[in-house]
Structure formats: C-alpha cells, structure tokens
Amino acid sequence: MSIDGRPIIELLDTARHDRSGFSCGVEALDRYLQSQAGQDARRRVAAPYVLAEPPSLNVIGFYTLSNTALQAAELPPAFVKKLPRYPVLPATLLGRLAVDAGQLGRGLGTVLLLDALRRCLRSETASLAVVVDAKDDAAISFYERHEFLRLPDQANRLFKPMAEIEKLFATAARETRA
Fold first, then answer.
1. pLDDT per residue over 124-137, tens digit each?
2. Which of 12, 92, 96, 133 is the S-S candidate for 48 at Cβ 3.0 to 4.6 Å?
3. How many CA atoms within 13 Å lie on the side-chain side of 12?
4. Which domain CATH number covers 71?
5. Number of domains in the chain
C-alpha cells in the first residue's frame, strides 16, 4: 500500500482493484484485465500485477508473470554454448504488459517492466531469462530499448538473460549509493 498517494504495484485483488475504467487501446488486453486476470490468478496459471492509484485503487497498468520454458535450439548459439546441454531451459514469461491510454507518456511502461524484472530476479524459482511475445512493432521497439534480444527464428519473441537483469540492478544499486 502507498502511504504517500503515489501509484503502487501489487498482485491483483479483484475485490480491491477497480479495473472497470482501464483501457489501453488493445481490446484483447483490456478484456483480459477486466474478465480473465482474476481467474488466471485463482487458477495459478499467471500472476497478474497491477499499477493502481490510491485511494480508489483504479488500475492504470498491469503485467503478468508465469513460468515457461525455452528450447535450447531457439536461443542464439553464442548464448547456448555457455549453458549446460539441456534441451529445455527454464524461463519466466512476461505475458502481458499494458498501460491505460490516458496515462501514456509518464514512463509507466518502464516502471512496470522494471518491477517485473526485479520480481523475476528475486524469485526462488530457477529462470534463465525473461521472455516476452511482443504484439507489434511498437512493443518490439519498447523491449529492444530495454535491451531485450530477439530469438533468431521468432521475430516477435524476445528475451533478456537473467544475468543481464542482475547486472542492471547491481549497476542501479551502485549508482544509488554513489
């Protein structure tokens, strides 16, 4: 909970978070948040996190996390040669990420992405990378700006190695202390 009135990011609670006014301009994402996200959370197939504004807790953004796997053959050869010879490798899927259209330009997409990456890094479950399936060129551009790499044979599937995520937060921590 926020004590200073700033937006907070927390697991979706369908009883507390008002999702009714959320509209990112992509019907499938709007519909998912409003009617499917709660079910996915209850069934434990995805963990939906929402960015909500106190005191009403109107949802202004969200993302989902779940476990996935990558075939070693999908990954760039230079990356795979540093790994054990497993045919399937554990990863985390950042399945959806959206910001309300009325909130665009505030950097909230980056805030949500960094929160998701931090949660993935802190997870006690093994994960080699965070994977995203970008919906369009704008989404691909967003993830590439955040140094996600394209999988060689899947134009819309990108990944960010957990080692790079760890470096990102270690660098941020050093800069904060300096």
1. 899 999 999 999 99
2. 12
3. 27
4. 3.40.630.30
5. 1
